[in-house]
Design a protein that fits this description.
Layout: E1 7-13, H1 17-28, E2 33-36, H2 44-48, E3 55-58, E4 66-67, H3 74-80, H4 83-92, E5 97-99, E6 104-107, H5 112-124, E7 128-130, E8 135-141, E9 144-149, E10 152-161, H6 176-183, E11 188-194, E12 198-200, H7 202-206, E13 215-223, E14 231-241, E15 244-246, H8 247-254, E16 263-266, H9 270-279, H10 285-290, H11 295-304, H12 317-328, E17 330-332, E18 334-337, E19 345-350, E20 368-370, E21 378-379, H13 384-399
Parallel strand pairs: 1-2, 1-10, 2-7, 10-20
Antiparallel strand pairs: 3-6, 4-21, 5-6, 8-9, 9-10, 11-19, 12-15, 12-18, 13-14, 13-16, 14-15, 16-17
Helix pairs in contact: 1-5, 1-13, 3-13
The chain binds dihydroflavine-adenine dinucleotide (FDA).
């Protein structure tokens, strides 16, 4: 590509959710935008998201659904580009979707509908997209960014980093934005996998082998009061797997969990326990548990509390307390996450304390913006991460 005489209004690095939306929105404002991506196929994370149906937003997305060292940072962007704005855009494009669970919106047909809509917006607004292109270096000289690639140099007034997070490295993840920020004194919060299954120690795992494949609704508690993100609890399903714990409950809990900490789970509510206590009579512990829990789990709890052959009415105070704890406050001791290959998002990233929350501009690197997942903003499960991509991209586009 010979671009030596072209001066772009912005070069966006990364043609994922945030990069394409930002480019298209800036294109609507008649800006001359070039998007570069190093992958052979673009929009791949969108394609695999939501089991192929892309949970593209959550109707209730608000600051409380995000983790960041600066918890107020998301508020401005979320207020300026709301879930209903993105929903309206889908309606405008006649894309069929449905609400699945607690405000989570999914495509009816396929995630490809969202990719097509983004590409169409870019095409209609004359955005140029090039891939695969490797970006080697970016230098600001006399108020112009010179972006050195394997296909030559491009010049731009502004630079937008939209390179996403580190999960699923095989489809294009890179830490290029984080390296770039760090080299220019824009600090970075150490990234770690989030929304990720957790494995158990070998000893603990072996006691759950018989439960593999079982999914149960729970209330899960995770996190440490004194830590940056505090404690959180979620009312979701927990899945026992052959490698440990997964399912929405664990994915949510994993964002708050740190090595060495436990997570606690209530399989029953206090009122269910009360009901059980009142109605159990002379039944065997396992049999009464089976009335409230899946049989395999009931059997497991009766075993681990060593109350298998006991009748509920005959339990002494200590035994009853042990049983109560195991159904209302079961403590797991995960040893690690399953890592970047299994994570949905990245915790940490470009430090929001050095960014303008109204525009996504860096306050230390001139004419430079960071949007989407490369920023230290991580959503809960349920469409919040895409909403962050849209909102941060939109506000950035308005200021290019
Ligand atoms: P995104 O990852 O979309 O795009 C980054 C782009 O930058 C990629 O095209 C990449 O190739 C490119 N890039 C990276 N490094 C580069 C470099 N050095 N040079 C050039 N280009 C570079 N969220 C949600 O809200 N609902 C959901 O249903 C799901 N489901 C889901 C499933 C799975 C399996 C995963 C892994 C993730 C999700 N997510 C999700 C999370 C969601 O996919 C994610 O938060 C967004 O895609 C982030 O959008 P970005 O544009 O920031 O990054």
């Amino acid at each position: 590509m010979d671009d030596s005489n072209t001066l772009w209004d912005a070069v966006v690095i990364g043609a994922g959710a945030a990069g394409l939306f930002c480019a298209g929105q800036a294109g609507l404002r008649q800006k001359k935008i070039l998007v570069l991506d190093h992958a052979k196929k673009i929009g791949e994370k969108i394609r695999i998201s939501g089991g192929g149906f892309c949970n593209f937003t959550n109707r209730y997305s608000s600051a409380q659904h995000f983790l960041s060292r600066n918890p107020h940072f998301v508020k401005s962007a979320l207020a300026r580009y709301r879930p209903s704005d993105f929903e309206g855009w889908l309606q405008h494009n006649h894309i069929a979707y449905h609400e699945k669970h607690r405000g989570q919106l999914f495509c009816d047909r396929s995630a490809q509908d969202v990719i097509n809509m983004l590409l169409q917006l870019c095409q209609q607004t004359s955005v140029t997209i090039r891939f695969p292109v490797t970006v080697h270096d970016c230098q600001l000289i006399d108020k112009v960014w010179h972006i050195y690639t394997n296909q030559g140099v491009v010049n731009s007034l502004t630079l937008v980093w939209a390179t996403g997070g580190l999960p699923v490295p095989k489809i294009g993840a890179s830490d290029k934005a984080l390296q770039f920020a760090q080299q220019r004194d824009h600090s970075v919060i150490l990234p770690r996998p989030a929304l990720v299954p957790l494995s158990l120690t070998e000893k603990e795992e072996s006691s759950f082998t018989q439960l593999s494949g079982l999914s149960v609704p729970v209330v899960i508690h995770s996190g440490n009061k004194g830590e940056h993100y505090g404690q959180a609890h979620f009312d979701e399903d927990l899945l026992f797997t052959h490698r440990g714990l997964s399912g929405p409950a664990i994915l949510q809990a994993s964002s708050y969990w740190r090595e060495g900490e436990s997570v606690s789970v209530a399989f029953l509510s206090s009122s269910q326990w009360q009901e059980m206590d009142n109605s159990a009579g002379g039944k065997l512990v396992e049999n009464i548990l089976t009335l409230f829990l899946p049989q395999r789990l009931a059997k497991h709890i009766a075993q681990v509390t060593a109350l298998e052959q006991r009748r509920f009415a005959e339990l002494n105070r200590t035994e009853k307390e042990r049983l109560k704890n195991s159904v209302l406050n079961y403590v797991f001791h995960p040893d690690k996450t399953l890592g970047w290959n299994k994570a949905e998002v990245m915790l940490g990233g470009v430090d929001t304390n050095l960014m303008d929350s109204r525009t996504m501009a860096s306050t230390v690197i001139p004419q430079c913006y960071f949007i989407g997942e490369c920023v230290d903003v991580t959503g809960h499960l349920g469409g919040h991460n895409f909403q962050w991509a849209w909102s941060s991209a939109y506000v950035c586009a308005q200021s290019l």
